[in-house]
Amino acid sequence: MSMALFTIVAMLASFAICGIPFGVLVAKAHGVDVRKEGSGNIGMTNVARTVGGGAAALTFVLDVFKGTFCVLIARLLVAHLYCGGDWTLTAPQQPLGWIASCVWAACVFGHVFSPYLGFHGGKGISVGLGAGLGLCWPVALLALAVFLIVAVPSRYVSLGSICAAIALPTWAFVFEFTSAAMVPTIVVGALVIWCHRANIERLRTGTENKFTLHKHG
Predict the structure, then answer these.
(1) Exposed, middle or buried: residue 142 (CB in 10 Å: 0-12, 13-18, 19+)?
(2) CA 121 to CA 61: how far, in whole Å?
(3) CA 150, 192, 61 angle in degrees (round to 5)?
(4) Cα separation of 48 and 27, whole Å?
(5) Mean predicted confidence (pLDDT) in 39-49
(6) So where are the chain's domains?
(7) pLDDT digits over 190-205, tens only?
(8) Which residue among 80, 91, 142, 194 is the one 20 to 30 A from 202 at the CA level?
């Protein structure tokens, strides 16, 4: 199989896997249609607001896992098929790292445009973190650190997410991603910001909701 065909197949498979709306499934198990409650978003934040902390934590873990799984499997296959088993050659700093970076982008797009929800979905933060951990864990953790530094004191999850998305290409540059691997990174950052366009407007007008947990009863 040519590398181009492999990349297309891997991206389509990752799009399908990461389109699985775990937030909807977890909330449904608690008798809540998360798409009709709170902000209507299927991600961890809205699950926390409408169902509770335990459900939100499970949603986060599952969304992170599906991203990590797809990228790691793609890297293992690239190493086996095209690198003589050398895992290091699949890193985004290496010539074939662009394949894993494209898979990372496909993971985020699958979550944001879930094929199981009429091409609607979440905002790509948790799955982006998970896929990023599979691609280059230092960059993913540094982006997470930016998120926490902003979101924890302000309690604006959206603001932390936007800042992390802005910081993402910078960290990728610092860690010397190749030009080909940088392109999907920039696309992912831009997509996350685009997904938060309504939040940006509410932040501008001072009407954005701060993070809260649903209290049963």
Answers:
(1) buried
(2) 17
(3) 75
(4) 10
(5) 87
(6) 3-205
(7) 999 999 999 999 999 9
(8) 142
Q: Which of 197, 87, 189, 85 is nearest to 134 (CA)?
A: 87
Asked if 159 and 151 count as a contact pair (C-beta separation under 8 A), the reply is yes
Please state, as a whole number, how many other Cβ atoms lie within 10 Å of the Cβ of residue 193. 18
CA distance 194 to 191: 5
Which is nearest to 180 in space by CA: 107, 113, 91?
91
Q: State the Cα–Cα distance between residues 195 and 165, nearest whole angstrom.
A: 11
List the structure tokens of 120: 């609607």
Residue carrying the six token digits 């003589």:
84
Nearest to 181 by CA among 98, 89, 100: 98
Run of H or E residues at 210? none
Q: Which amino acid is at 163?
A: C
pTM of the model: 0.93
Q: How many residues does the chain have?
A: 217
Helices and strands per DSSP (H, E), number in the chain: 9, 0
Please, are residues 191 and 124 in contact by the beta-carbon 8 Å criterion?
yes
